[in-house]
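We read letters as residues; the fold follows as tokens. Both lines appear below.
***
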Amino acid sequence: MPTRTFHQLACPLDGLPLTRHDRQLLCPDGHSFDIARQGYANLLPVQHKKSRHPGDSQAMVEARVAFLDSGAYAPIAEQLAQSAAAVLPAQDEVCVLDAGCGDGYYLDRLFQQLAAADPQQTLNLVGLDIAKPAIIAACRRNKAITWLVGTNVRPPLLPASVDLVLCLFGFPSWEAFAGVLRPGGHIVLVESGPAHLIELREVIYPEVRRSPPPALDKAEAAGFRLVDTQTLTFRTGPMPREQLDRLLVMTPHLYRASHEGKAAAEALDTLDLTVEVVFRTLVLGDG
């Protein structure tokens, strides 16, 4: 299974190509970025941060790792692999960016499935997240993937260097994604469906809205076209208290809930949840 470190990184300050020298990434203008001992590079300059510690906290990352490693969301990873394989080009090397990769669970699972499907294809995968604790956790999953601390608004990749962008439960930056995708490249967008975790939401909120995924007008304005939509729905089975706690910590629901809603959630012993996830595939241009 051929793999290699992604070599088309861009300086987040001026967009020039980065070249690796020992444990540093250097750009022609003299900017340098260290490669951490865990293996990731921090390409998020302080002037691009909106807070001192942006993104998920350490507690949120730890909860997500434990929850996902239980296999509760394995069907999502399987559907993602199918959606990705359907649009990746049949070429010797493929480049995939997971924009907002979190702890790397989904990108690692994709890596394993692509490698099994075609052991001769070179996999050049990049995981990008604004939260350093998440990227540190991702490094522990797979050393063959390039892990970066950075932002979707300014992904530190050279123009037209990526075949496929993944954006799972995140914040798409359409113009930035269009910039790093090759002509005819694709995005697989994964978002919550109207009934996602409905049983839990009905416990913690006084009123629940079954909202569809956001409209794609901004994507269309950036040159993307929707080519496929699939909805994955399954039940988790009775989820124990420990897993419910992890789920609450790793999602926004714990932080949005009122005092009464949190108390109601804490009173649960188990809950059988609906998972509803919408996969939308878009292509850049007429591809």
Summary: Residues 19-52+71-189+209-232+277-284 form a domain with the Rossmann fold fold (CATH 3.40.50.150). The mean pLDDT is 91. The longest helix spans residues 74-87.
